[in-house]
């Protein structure tokens, strides 16, 4: 049985394609035919035809920053439940951060995830740890990671505090063409802190995280990159590649802008919660635990800077930082609550509602940020809408208005500040690995 996806808005920025058309996919998951414009593809009695009028058929979305908690904390999320949440959100692939228990700091952890994800509906790319147990003291085996197909490394959740260890990480990663993904945080400034430092943290009597802690670590890393690139001390040395995770402040964005102008291979991502919420929303909220994350929700001025960074192209990707937690880890005193929220199932709706509908970015730009660019940054195979290529699609209904409810969530956890929020735009399904997954 072949699948025919009929009369969709075919939207693939990588091919400069934005037109109505139809695609036929063989039963082995390979694209057979493409018809553009008003032409339709004739179906045989055995074919399954899916009418996508009014919907977008985009290259499969990819979230380059997720936490599925397995191994070690399966009570929060598993590879299977996380994959179901990803598929429901319209993602055909995600990158999993290594801060599991135990930390993914060796090929054994990579092999575990590969083995247990083979039959899941989405691709699970593994990000290896930068240092052993993510302690920031001894580098993990980058070469072995590369031999297992790992393309990126990170100590997400903590930044390497030692400049010498960070320098070695740049040099070692460059030799294996590994992307470094950095959680930028000067921990000497943030120890014991809960939320953004400012008026609202003072009124709540909570220790604040200074926004400059992000820019300080980022500035150090960029200086190291510039130094190593300028002096070429260890030939042959590939150009270091560096990605800023969940960027949240105007100061950090300015550093990224300058680094790009100076020719450094620097990219950055933003989360939907950081382009939607500020610390004022946390201050007003009753369920404050679901507004705690790192980096924290920042000031209204920094939120505006994020929107500007999306509009002017400084920000390269949208990533959810999907971070499931059990209810008891959020419904507790704020200085004891876990950081992070789930985000896979609200990402498309928030992007369309907060960015596309408000004309911050266009729909093609949204697909670029959520599909094309993350794959490019991670050195993954691009998705093309051409006969002979593997079909990897996300279907999006940009006009669907829906409300986030606990019952609608596929993740094992429901820690999100967006419960009861009305959104416009939702994934209606994915096609990947030769299989169709339609939203309920």
Describe it.
- It is a single chain.
- The two termini are 22 Å apart.
- The chain folds into 2 domains: 3-56 and 389-400 and 423-438, Urease, subunit C, domain 1; 61-377, TIM Barrel.
- It contains 12 helices and 18 strands.
- Helix content is 29%, strand content 22%.
- The protein has helices at residues 79-89, 107-117, 142-147, 163-175, 187-190, 199-204, 212-231, 250-261, 279-284, 300-312, 347-356, 363-377, and strands at 3-12, 17-25, 31-36, 48-51, 56-59, 61-66, 91-96, 123-126, 152-154, 179-182, 195-196, 208-209, 241-244, 265-270, 317-318, 393-403, 422-432, 435-438.
- The mean pLDDT is 96.
- The chain is of the alpha/beta class and 440 residues long.
- The chain is globular, with a radius of gyration of 21 Å.
- Strands 1, 2, 3, 4, 5, 16, 17 and 18 form an 8-stranded mixed beta sheet that branches.
Task: Supply database-style keywords.
440 residues; alpha/beta; Urease, subunit C, domain 1; TIM Barrel; 2 domains; 8-stranded mixed β-sheet; 5-stranded parallel β-sheet; 18 strands
Q: What's the CATH architecture name of the largest domain? A: Alpha-Beta Barrel
* Main beta-sheet annotation: 8 strands, mixed
The CATH superfamily of the largest domain turns out to be: Metal-dependent hydrolases
Number of domains: 2
Find the CATH topology of the largest domain. TIM Barrel
**Uncertain segments of ≥5 residues (pLDDT<50)?**
none
CATH class of the largest domain: Alpha Beta
Count the beta strands: 18
One letter per element, helices H and strands E, the order comes to EEEEEEHEHEHEHEHEHEHEHEHHEHHEEE
Question: Proportion of β residues?
Answer: 15-25%
User: What is the number of helices?
Assistant: 12
Could you estimate the helical fraction of the residues in percent? 25-40%
Mean pLDDT across every amino acid position: 96
Q: Report the C-alpha radius of gyration, rounded.
A: 21 Å
What is the overall shape?
globular
């Amino acid at each position: 049985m072949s699948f025919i996806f009929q009369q969709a808005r075919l939207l693939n920025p990588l091919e400069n394609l934005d037109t109505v058309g139809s695609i036929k996919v063989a039963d082995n998951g390979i694209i057979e035919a493409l018809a553009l414009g008003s032409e339709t593809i004739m179906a045989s009695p055995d074919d399954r035809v899916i009418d996508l009028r009014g919907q977008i058929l985009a290259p499969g979305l990819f979230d380059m920053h997720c936490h599925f908690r397995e191994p070690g904390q399966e009570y929060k999320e598993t590879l299977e439940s996380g994959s179901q949440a990803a598929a429901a959100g319209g993602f055909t692939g995600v990158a999993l951060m290594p801060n599991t228990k135990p930390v993914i700091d060796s090929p054994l952890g990579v092999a575990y995830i590969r083995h247990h994800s083979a039959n899941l509906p989405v691709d699970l790319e593994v990000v290896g740890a930068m240092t052993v147990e993510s302690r920031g003291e001894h580098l993990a085996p980058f070469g072995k990671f590369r031999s297992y197909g790992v393309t990126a490394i990170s100590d997400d959740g903590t930044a390497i505090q030692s400049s010498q260890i960070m320098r070695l990480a740049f040099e070692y990663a460059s030799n294996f063409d590994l992307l470094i993904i950095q959680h930028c945080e000067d921990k000497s400034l943030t120890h014991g802190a809960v939320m953004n430092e400012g008026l609202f943290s003072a009124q709540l009597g909570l220790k604040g995280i200074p926004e400059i802690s992000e820019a300080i670590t980022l500035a150090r890393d960029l200086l190291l990159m510039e130094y190593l690139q300028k002096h070429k001390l260890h030939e042959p040395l590939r150009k270091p590649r560096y990605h800023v995770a969940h960027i949240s402040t105007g100061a950090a964005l300015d550093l990224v802008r300058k680094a790009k102008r100076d020719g450094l291979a620097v990219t950055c991502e933003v989360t939907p919660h950081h382009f939607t919420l500020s610390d004022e929303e946390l201050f007003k909220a009753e369920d404050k635990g679901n507004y705690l994350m790192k980096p924290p929700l920042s000031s209204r001025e920094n939120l505006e800077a994020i929107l500007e960074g999306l509009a002017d192209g400084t920000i390269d990707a949208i990533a959810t930082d999907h971070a499931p937690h059990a209810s008891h880890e959020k419904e507790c005193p704020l200085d004891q609550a876990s950081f992070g929220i789930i985000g896979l199932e609200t990402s498309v709706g928030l992007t369309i509602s907060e960015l596309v509908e408000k004309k911050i970015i266009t729909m093609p730009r949204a697909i670029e940020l959520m599909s094309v660019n993350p794959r490019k940054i991670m050195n993954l195979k691009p998705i093309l809408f051409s006969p002979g290529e593997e079909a990897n699609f996300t279907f999006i209904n940009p006009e669907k208005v829906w409300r986030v409810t606990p019952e609608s969530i596929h993740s094992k956890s429901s820690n999100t500040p967006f419960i009861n929020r009305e959104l416009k735009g939702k994934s209606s399904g994915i096609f990947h690995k030769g299989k169709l997954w339609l939203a309920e």
